[in-house]
Batch of 3 targets.
Target 1
Amino acid sequence: MKKIIINGANGFIASNFIHEMRNKNYEVVALVRASSKYSSEQRMENALSEINDGEHVNFNKLKTYSYSLLDDDFSITEKQMENIFDGDVDFFHFAASLKFDKKTKDEIFSINVNGVRNAIEVFLKYATKKSRFFFVGTAYSCGKFEGLFKEKFYPNKDITQFRNYYEQSKRFAENVVKENIDKNRLNGHVIRLSQVVGNSITGVTKTDYGIFDFAKRIHSLAARYPNKTVRVHIDPYSTQNLIPINTVVSYLMRTLEVNELPVIMNFIAKNSMKNIQLINGVCKLLPINITLVGHIEVGEMDALERIIHAGMSFSGNYIDTNILFDTKNLNSIILSPGDEVNEKNIFKMMKYFFDNISSNGGKQILAQAV
């Protein structure tokens, strides 16, 4: 059984993946950046404890190292690196910045592009020829794409072709992988994730990204201004591509089992959710009435509506999307389609999410980790 190395290991998706690998007795190496308050081991332990609602976590065969994404050899000693990469390994690059605006462009590209480049250099230096490198990216590297977004590489484009610098940086990172496949014979793969949400079976939701970031803001406003009716600039019939974390983990586990994998795989939901379906669930759970309007000028909004609009600086870029994703490569490796998001289980996720916000005094939770 191969050793699995993961950087950005304390992020939401990575920690769920690690938890499942531990259940299957894989040997896992977690690369985690230490913080001013917590060591890398404590951050990893906190992440695993969080996704398990504080229950005991099995740390057998899990080794955690403090690392720095952009430093030579990740600021890990040569001897430690040789031990980490001993034998054939699968290396998953989860580390990322989720920032998106122009003022943080340099930081975004430093982490999301140069970080991938440095990780590949480290991998090529220490890994065996049979080892594999997985870049975990986003399906929204498609940018402002029309048509079917295929499981292939696309050329780098100007920022005008993307909704934000996060999307653009992820396209550039994919092409760093391609360049190393072509020039350095990197045994590399790209996994593109759509918007990852909670567990479709249990409803447990430990991320406040995307639709849940919007829901958190509405939760706060509903508590302060109960029973208000507000108009929101969202196309009710545009869609969100949401994939449950349990489905993502099952697909990731499958990549460990298959020897010959496609280079690019779109890990996305076959069936997207309409905005109106998501908002209806929010309104059933909170004392607020949200009316979706295809277009409304800021000058026509009342004070509360302007607050909501201002808080949609990221999610507002995705209110009118109907993106189509190819899944031919994904279908070639999965044994059966994973669970999908529907009105019933997204309602369960929303309920868990709101209950958890209330019980934790508004604190919420895990995103991607650098």
Note: Residues 56 and 120 are 34 Å apart (CA to CA).
Target 2
Amino acid sequence: MKLPPPVEVSTNQVSFDVSEIEPLLQAPPMNLPPWPEAQITLRDGRILYIRQAKLEEVPAMLGYMEKVMKVQKDFYDIVGVRVYGEILGWARKRIKDPFHLVGLIDGEWLGLANGRVMNEDIAISLHTMTFARRGRLGWAMYYAKTYYALEVLKCKEWWSTFESYNGWRMAGVEMAQPTKPWPEYQHELGGARVYYLTQAAWNSGVKNFCEQMIGSAMSFNVTDEVRKANENFRVPETVDL
């Protein structure tokens, strides 16, 4: 769009250094506390190690997600595409205050749980994915990011939506999450319904979700043995979902 200037000007062109534009495109980050590393014994006896993802792991993560997004089953395709964009948005600084938690067993990337912080009161769940189907790994990953939002960040509300039937059952039903009035409230993932948890719901029982659904609590006292077993990050060799 062009319009003639309403007054005489000394120059017809104004140039910008891209470093001057970037602050307008990149959301200024909040000072978020880090996720404390954790471990949990799954129902099948394996020990899952959960930590924050690292930027240097992004290329390997994106490479694996390219394979996942081609799986036309259980909504892996659409979730895979969206997760790819969320990871890339984090790396390119085009998503506001994201957090990405990876679940590892002996260094193998088997779970992802991510989200972002809208403001001091509301954190938004984006996606939970698992790349192995044993031990209720997905339950542990979703719980971890819910714990981060409500227990570490102390947000007042945690907003989710669900694209798959398994995800809806795992977190929407089994955490007894109510929904906001729709369409007045819409989740940013496609305008779907907003399921939510409040601090009151969290503290009245949801905080014990892992003990109820997995049979063991999440521990933030990670052993040296578990940490050493997961010091080298690697993606699965195959996509068997």
Note: Residues 32-229 form a domain with the Aminopeptidase fold (CATH 3.40.630.30).
Target 3
Amino acid sequence: MKMIFRWFPHGDDTVTLEQIRQIPGVSGVAVMLPHIPVGEVWSPEEINAVKTEVNNAGLEMEVIESVNIHEDIKQGLATRDMYIQNYIETMKNLSDAGIKCICYNFMPVMDWYRSELYMPLADGSNAMAYNAKIARELTADKMIKSMMDGSNNLSLPGWEPERFPKMAKDIEFYQGVSQDEYFKNIKYFLDAIIPYAEEYDIDFGVHPDDPPYPMFNLPRVVNNAEAIRRYLALNPSKRNGLTLCTGSLGANPNNDVPAMAKEFAALGKVPFVHLRNVLHTGEGEFHESAHLSSDGSLDMFKIVEALYKSGFDGYIRPDHGRMIWGETGRPGYGLYDRALGACYINGLWEAVKKLNT
């Protein structure tokens, strides 16, 4: 496996490449180009500029997280073919730059939600949290009304208010879209891009719903083992894979994350893993924790063991960390706790490897 670290270029990250280079066992970074509007082509010049910066810092750039999918593709509109062609051109440009894996998601409208970004924890750190009661109160009707009439009585932590009108229209659109219809749109996209993924030698890993609970009556995509099987069956190519995010899937205590790791890694369908821990605090409620098994509700050793025994040989990165030691920055993406997580995961991997050889 290769241990990597997420990094946001163009000055959008408080963490530097030089700092990442000093984390033991980290060989590269997963990046994105968020300044390019969704649906537009990533040019070779833009891609190679970031790659050069990464390489000059002594790191690899083999994973992209994410090339976001335009909402017209998700909604199955007539314009989707144009955006799919742009996506394929971006894939070609990324392949030419040595990219081996693309993490993406097919969640409609919103790709994540937390009710709190800086929940104080008992040890003095803070972390992102999800409160089911608050989420249930944000009904689709309430979301649409508040976003459309500009009443400003709605707050979505981490989301810019100027995006709300477009989000409201999209949420309204999906109220008439069934789960089966949505999966047809997913299949249309996969069938269009996967042949090029095979040609360009790029693995695709879909990210699970985050959190794995129903939100605003939107279609759910990847939130349990059954849904993952359905998604992977849409296109049988090995390139159609899963980004196994333990925190996203593990937020639901009914999900057996070690079993998922074993099943899907054994199929060669897990090119990328996000490893983090969460602590269940009530029905449908959780907050993110330190990576250590005893600090959360997930057995990180069993997850790593399942990956190793199933022949996993892809990329792993420590996922969301707490804010510790007075650090401030992008929620979940500080340096210190994720660096501790990377070292912990590397220790688990070494232990599992030695116990099984």
Note: The chain has 13 helices and twelve strands.
